[in-house]
Design brief:
3-stranded antiparallel beta sheet; 12% strand; single chain; 81 residues; 52% helix; alpha+beta
């Protein structure tokens, strides 16, 4: 027998998935500044102070990052230094 989810449960699970990939046709999960800071092993304040250098997606007052572009940033910076 097929399990039936309530309307609220369906909306919650659908909205979580769509929030992760919102405005991102590739379906790649967007990272927060905290997640990028963990990847780069720097403080979150460093990420915010270097937004002009990082490949950032601005969503109003929020910033998000594509993992692939963060990896490209690391490769590019490694080649320069």
């Amino acid at each position: 027998m097929r399990e039936r989810l309530s309307w609220r449960a369906r909306m919650t699970s659908d909205s979580k998935e769509s929030n992760l990939t919102a405005g991102n046709p590739s379906g790649e999960v967007l990272l927060t500044a905290d997640e990028v800071a963990q990847i780069l092993r720097v403080p979150r304040s460093w990420v915010y102070s270097h937004l002009s250098d990082l490949p950032v997606i601005r969503l109003g007052r929020y910033v998000r990052f594509r993992r692939s572009e963060v990896n490209g940033f690391l490769e590019k910076r490694g080649a320069c230094q």
